[in-house]
Amino acid sequence: MHAIVSLKMDDVAGSTTQRNVGQTQIEMGLSDYDRDNEDEDQILISPSDADRKDHEFKSTMNGPLVDALHVWTLRRVKNRIFGSIRIVTMQNKINLLLPFGPAAVILAHLLKREHGWIFFFSLLGIAPLAERLGFVTEQLAFFTGPTVGGLLNATFGNATEMIISLYALGNGMTRIVQQSLLGSILSNMLLVLGCAFFMGGVIHHKKEQVFNKAAAVVNSGLLLMAVMGLLFPAVLHFTHTELHVGRSELALSRFSSCVMLVAYVFYLIFQLKSHRNLYDPIDQTQGENGGVTDEEEVAVITRWEAISWLAILTAWISFLSGYLVNAIEGASESWNMPVAFISVILLPIVGNAAEHASAIMFAMKDKLDISLGVAIGSSTQIAMFVIPFCVVVGWIMGKSMDLNFQLFETATLFITVIVVAFMLQEGTSNYFKGLMLILCYMIVAASFFVHVDPEQDNG
To answer: For the chain, which domains are there?
Structure first.
């Protein structure tokens, strides 16, 4: 009995001892774990080791990963540049004429007496540049909003005519300036608008196209005001009723130009700010089921790409304009063609390439308000801004640029404005109205083909 009790007591003591040993081992393990954590904390806190690990991490980052990022960035920039070049220079069939620009420069240096070919190649080379200038301006308008975009379109839409005119004015060719600007107005009002009405009427022959009549009336009034500004100096000159011969005509032209510039500034405020609702286009995008049929257009190049292309195209047009203007008189002699016909008919057709393409495209999409804004709005800007601006610039340069466009040119402009105003008074268009405007332009072109400038005839 005593042996059994003693044995049980020994088992209890042994189990107690094992528990104490296990607890001691656990405590030792915890102390070792804490010591290891303290050592690890010391390692983490150690500045030298932290800097060493950070340097190792940065070395890893500055290795293959950064090189790959650099290569990817360069590839993306290169693809963006080539994509922009492809969009601007290869997406329109008229760009096939771009090589004629460099060809004109080469020809001018190799064959200096071939003025006819130099003029012809320069003319063909400027045509796609003028069209692309209008395209880039439209792209930039996507980022500037409708107000600034409208001003940009109005300014750069006639950039080609303004560049050619300023270059000719600097060389003292005031008659070429007058005739080329007059031809731009006639071309926009008769040829561009006529082709837009005709093509829109043919595509939409089952209905009569409509446009905002109120905006058309305002533009017609401004054009009549421009006719008044050009008419009085011509009448004063040819009736020999000047107070001071040779000076009153020039003084009246400069005063009238300043008044016309003020009127154009208020026209911009009226159109873009105070009465913007008057220029809202009539909704023509609703289909028969009431849904919108036209997709919303988006920009295909970025803002800075558009600005860069604007500078490049303007510089190239300015460069080619010098060869074009210098070859006009030589081309007239070699082709046996009046300078007036070249200045009034041929030059504006090239300068209005952008307006011509845009007006026809929008008319075919049944957006006549935009077509009128391109054709009539461009004519209004030339008559109320570009012509007076050239007079003021000539005043500053000491050139006798005036508003006396001679009776034949002024009468042609007056009849043109009256005809177009009658065409626009109903607020509707069809292919027959367009055909009549085109035929009127053919009459004007034939008239200038047999017209000799009085100053050249006297000289």
So the answer is: 17-91 (no CATH), 100-284+298-452 (1.20.1420.30)
